[in-house]
């Protein structure tokens, strides 16, 4: 009997390269790894071309499609994470020296209003500096080549936000250099910056100390992308989520092990000057895992992103990270309410915050990745088990269900009152709260 075929599409990062070169394999599956010249190409091939069984997808792309229905389920695998103070570029002749100077300016964004990098950049500026996107004009276009906005996703934005398309034949990089736009929020460094143009600079030239301070205060290492699986495949092969999670986790761990081993050689295989100093600094900042997967280690980061997405008018509701499927709750020893068939809220709270959760995570992985528990938490087989829409497990749309129908009542099913949400101010521009010491993240 031949192993079932599986096509995976993702970018070649250090953390996924072992899947491409065969150092890590997916047991029981005949895997074909594919990539693209750019990340939007991979997203397009997944969404419009339906070319992949499993693929990398930007969080905003996933959430936008979640509003209209989509055939994918997200797993708590996060292959792309980047701090985003560094992604804000300015024209040096527009009087912009600090975040407050952005008010009333024209700002460019690649592909759509609210790219993942832009969602984080706007959100951080909103929380930390009082930035208001509605006070600006936004121009959407191609970074280095003229391009229309992405045509494979919806383009929501608030009615009071001025969003236009770049003039035909224009690129955002050239427009920034020429002063036709005042600033640019970009996931990639513009060519005019790489060429050393005196007309362009970063808003935060010394961004690393700011980003490290942000991480130390919030525990957040911004997540850009997740890994999704075709929903039909999960119905036919319920163990697939666990197998994919294991393969990506092993690939990530192989990359981390390579950096750890190369400390003995001062990271000379990279031939990057002072790379060993960077690795040692990062080892102090991230003592357990640089790139944690799973829900428990990323709750604050995901919760913050979902808030940003909603506050910026990209979602019609503030999606929740997820709620416990009865099977997951029973696995953790949590009582199930007879009438509603869902987990007792107080018991869930104690399990998430207490040792029971963290210890059982570490039984599967010493870094607290929670392989088994998070895959069940994300992949819910019964749409009736959750009465409210959840961002990473939209099964309310299964079996003819809908998010609207799923929100008829929630008296019997309260979402987890997570300590992160309790600690944060209710003010819409409040900073993201630190995760309490007994909370479920392992990044602090």
Could you characterize the architecture of this molecule?
This protein is α/β, with parallel strands linked by helices. Helix content is 35%, strand content 13%. The chain has helices at 17-21, 39-47, 59-68, 116-129, 172-178, 191-194, 207-218, 231-236, 240-262, 275-285, 299-311, 326-331, 345-353, 355-364, 371-378, 403-406, 419-423, and strands at residues 5-9, 30-34, 54-58, 72-81, 88-91, 106-110, 137-141, 162-165, 183-185, 200-202, 223-230. The strands form two sheets. It has a six-stranded mixed sheet. Strands 2-1-3-11-4 form a five-stranded mixed sheet, sandwiched between helices. Helix 4 (116-129) packs across helix 11 (299-311). The protein is globular, with a radius of gyration of 22 Å.
Briefly characterize the structure:
With 444 residues, the chain is of the alpha/beta class. It contains 17 helices and eleven strands. The protein starts with a strand and ends in a 21-residue tail after the last helix.
Structural class: alpha/beta
Number of strands: 11
pLDDT < 50 runs, ≥5 residues: 323-390, 392-444
Largest sheet: 6 strands, mixed
Series of secondary-structure elements, N-terminal to C-terminal: EHEHEHEEEHEEHEHEHEHHHHHHHHHH
Question: What distance lies between the first and last C-alpha atoms, to the nearest angstrom?
Answer: 46 Å
Q: How many distinct helices?
A: 17
What is the general shape? globular
Q: What level of helicity do the residues show?
A: 25-40%
Radius of gyration: 22 Å
Strand content: 5-15%
Could you tell me the mean pLDDT? 78
The order of strands across the largest sheet is 8-7-6-9-5-10
